[in-house]
Amino acid sequence: MDTSVKVQEKAKDTSRSAQGARGEVVVNVRFQPNGLVNMINHKPEYLNAQEWFDRLSRAASTYYIALSGGRGAFSIPGDTFQLIWEANQA
User: Fold this and answer.
1) Cys bridge to 76: 14, 26, 62, 81, which one at CB 3.0-4.6 A?
2) Rounded-to-integer distance, Cα 26 and Cα 50, Å
3) Sign of the Cα pseudo-torsion (20, 72, 58, 40, in order)
4) How far apart, in Å, are the Cα atoms of 40 and each of 23, 68, 70?
5) What is the mean pLDDT of each run of 10 residues along the chain (90 residues)?
């Protein structure tokens, strides 16, 4: 199969839309000065930012990286993120 055809097929696969080049989902977190979560991406609609951070912290704490400036990030393998996402759907 031609390489360009494989790339096009991957682009059509919506389950990969949040994954980076290495198959990881990067969830960025910004904290308020008091330590509560101000913003987090890739969040289920029914959860607030702090609830999603707490759930990710319990399920994927080994993938968390603390950054400077009140920020952090989870770099979670795509298949692991998919399992966490499915477990947190209403």
Assistant:
1) 81
2) 17
3) negative
4) 19, 16, 12
5) 46 50 89 97 94 97 97 96 91
- Look-up: residue for tokens 């990969």? 16
What pLDDT is attached to residue 20?
A: 62
Alpha carbon distance 20, 54 (integer Å) = 23
Look up residue 31 and give its amino acid: F
Could you give the residue ranges of the DSSP H alpha helices within the chain? 3-12, 49-60, 78-87
- For residues 56 and 82, what is the distance between their CA atoms, to the nearest angstrom? 12
Structure tokens at 79: 């298949």
CB-based burial label for 85 (10 Å; 0-12, 13-18, 19+):
middle
| Cα 45 to Cα 84: distance, rounded to the nearest angstrom | 15
Structure-token pair, residue 30: 């910004």
pTM over 0.70: yes
